[in-house]
Specification:
This protein is α/β, with parallel strands linked by helices and 399 residues long. Helices cover 34% and strands 16% of the residues.
């Protein structure tokens, strides 16, 4: 929500980003830069119809006559606040166009396989020699170095190679990927942090640099406590479904009419939780009196708590836990999420008018008091701003 003390432009206003990325990791990064005020030109291949995700539907935006546009939900999720220009980088003219845009850009982001842009003279080493100010970001499956650098990378591959799938799923079930492309998204966020750090260095020195981000590296980095535990013990963690490796009780519990999430984080909360279930005596049981003891006797405690919680409705459990200051909550479907008053209060859904019609999008979670995010451009149809390359004006100019 706007207020009188907010500035009209985002904190990255005036920063120019040349986006040669596609799919999800790169576009997530550049959309975030765009939300923060940077001017982003998305380069798309006229021979292929642009970003691959334009064809990753349904659903698609359709006009009043039902004609399908190239705005799939997948594409729109990571491509607002950009303008699309078609450039064929396999041609000399296309390569010249990229160099002309690079001369004006602060940041170039690409996600070709390592070495894939060298034959076009658009790799980091070549462009650095001509444009030492340029911050050049490269996203790839395994990074620019290492024995796997030549291999292509996709989110599912990164989740498998990087270990998160081995942690996800029921204890006796198959490894399961996360329900969205989280390896891509987190890689895009790491890339954004790296580019902003490089931008800070450039502002101080005038010097650009290469920011090398790998899907697998990023996924390994957010193994967090489980990764560090394995490093220090040499033991692989077990899949625990919805349970926590270090806290009990913490997980998904069946109720009389559905499910509830309980996150009982300390012994005092455990006592208050038991009072609702009328199981107060368990708090004194040496098997359950402390969290380390509960971890050791996890199964025995579950045998008691699961049927007890099942006697109550989801809302009754949530209300009782809120009254007792014990963390609890529902498992909402997406339509329930978007209908909630919390989502409305936080502006986590927005409507924009695209070239193909009105579209509903996810809001940006960043809330900056002086330089808030802005929503200036709906996700573009492929090549809709190619005409901005003609003439003597600045193609990055958003006015």
């Amino acid at each position: 929500m706007g207020s009188s003390d907010q500035l009209p432009h985002g904190p990255l206003h005036g920063i120019k980003v040349l986006d040669l990325s596609r799919i999800l990791a790169g576009p997530t990064c550049t959309q975030l830069l765009g939300d923060l005020g940077a001017s982003v030109l998305k380069i798309e291949n006229p021979k292929t119809g642009g970003d691959d995700t334009r064809q990753w539907g349904p659903p698609y935006v359709t006009d009043a006559q039902g004609n399908r546009s190239d705005l799939s939900a997948y594409f729109m999720s990571a491509n607002r606040n950009k303008r699309s220009v078609e450039v064929d980088i396999t041609t000399t003219a296309g390569q010249d166009t990229i160099r002309q845009l690079t001369a004006q850009a602060d940041i170039l982001l690409e996600n070709f396989k390592p070495g894939g842009l060298t034959k076009y003279g658009l790799d980091h080493e070549t462009l650095r020699a001509e444009f030492p100010h340029l911050i050049y970001g490269s996203i790839s499956g395994y990074g620019q170095t290492g024995p796997n650098a030549h291999k292509p990378g996709y989110d599912l591959m990164a989740q498998g190679y990087g270990g998160i799938m081995s942690l996800t799923g029921e204890p006796d079930g198959r490894p399961i990927k996360v329900g969205v492309g989280i390896a891509d998204v987190m890689c895009g966020m790491y890339a954004c942090v790296g580019l902003l750090a490089a931008l800070r260095h450039k502002e101080q020195t005038g010097e650009g640099q290469h920011v090398d981000i790998a899907l697998v590296d990023a996924q390994i980095a957010w193994l967090i406590n489980e990764g560090v535990a394995t490093l220090n013990t040499g033991q692989n963690p077990k899949r625990r479904g919805n349970e926590h490796p270090s806290i009990v009780p913490y997980g998904l519990y069946e109720t009389s009419d559905g499910h509830v999430i309980l996150a009982v984080g300390n012994d005092a909360q455990f006592e208050r939780f038991l009072s609702f279930l009328q199981l107060d005596g368990l708090a004194k049981d040496p098997r359950f009196a402390t969290n380390p003891a509960r971890l050791e006797h996890r199964d025995a405690l579950a045998d008691i708590l699961v049927p007890a919680v099942r006697q109550h409705s989801t809302q009754d459990v949530i209300a009782a836990m809120e009254a007792r200051k014990v963390p609890a909550g529902p498992v909402q479907t997406l339509d329930q999420v978007f209908a909630s008053d919390q989502v409305a209060a936080r502006d986590m859904t927005i409507e924009m008018m695209s070239e193909a019609g009105p579209v509903q999008l996810l809001g940006n979670p960043l809330k900056l008091s002086r330089t808030p995010v802005t929503y200036r451009f709906a996700p573009p149809t492929c090549g809709s701003s190619t005409g901005d390359l003609d003439g003597d004006g600045d193609p990055f100019d958003e006015s």
